[in-house]
Amino acid sequence: MLRLARYNRWAFQVKYPTKAPSLLFSFSTSAAESAPPIRVGLTESSGRGVFASRRIGTGDLIHTAQPIISHPSLSSLYTVCYFCLQKLPINSGVLQNVSFCSKRCEEKSKGLKYPLLVKRLACQVISGVVTPDVLDILQPEILTSEKVSLMKKDFALLRRNLEDSSIESDQMAFVTEGWYTAVLARIRINAFRIEYPGGSYEDLLSLAAASVEAEAAVGNAVYMLPSLYNHDCDPNANIFWTENVDAQIKARRDIEQGEELRICYIDASMDYEARQNILYEGFGFRCNCLRCESKD
Ligand SMILES: C[S@@+](CC[C@H](N)C(=O)[O-])C[C@H]1O[C@@H](n2cnc3c(N)ncnc32)[C@H](O)[C@@H]1O
């Protein structure tokens, strides 16, 4: 999970509903027939969380999820579809100069190409795909006043960028400093880094190139339901991507009804101190999982 956040004390006014979202879930036919075996509820000490509503077996697909917003990483701009992040075909060793894998993806993205999730979201709102408050339900990062000042500079750039694109002022009336910081505060702690499992020769080549450029991810995306999963350093569920931006969540072991489902936000092979530091510095919380409580 991409977590760039620093979690400091600055009273940030947010709309933060506790109602579970009911949109943007999609369910595979191999998952439960009608609804996934989960419910969203309150945990004792980690805010909202996702719980098993019935027993789930090891390896079961719990649900899949489509993103609210996504964008390719800069090194993948021309190698994956700009909308669904699926790898683009390679033609005789030369990458085709296309950015969408299909007409459908091109139409769904309305042809818009912006490198940042927040700009992408602004464009989606302007083109009527989503409403400006679509991310309000997600937990925001708590921002320092210094961070907000920095964001304001970026905000001015975004406004200028939209004005330069000849977008009518009433169409972008929602693009205020308040909207920008609130959206970014959510993106920063809820965006996932999308990496595909390496397999083919091309995958290995691009992985090698990516490690030189320190960017193995094909892109980033924000989802609704997956953002409600809390972290565990020994998780009982995994989130992963196989060929495009659609996420899959699977059980890593048998899970009893009522048990909280948790995924791992970081590299769980690190030691206790390193994990705690990364989770605190980057994600803004002290991990309360069993593994951390026993300082393993
Ligand atoms: C992506 S959100 C997860 C959903 C969140 N609990 C909510 O109510 O929206 C990440 C936030 O959940 C809390 N959290 C997640 N895992 C945690 C853990 N292992 N220990 C303590 N807090 C945790 C932290 O506040 C963290 O910033």
TrEMBL record:
Xref: Pfam families: SET
Parts forming coiled coils: none
The SET domain, residue ranges: 36-266
InterPro entries, alphabetized: H3K4_H4K5_MeTrfase (IPR050869), SET_dom (IPR001214), SET_dom_sf (IPR046341)
Top-level taxonomic group: Eukaryota
Residue intervals passing through the bilayer: none
Name this protein carries in UniProt: SET domain-containing protein
The organism of origin for this protein: Penstemon davidsonii
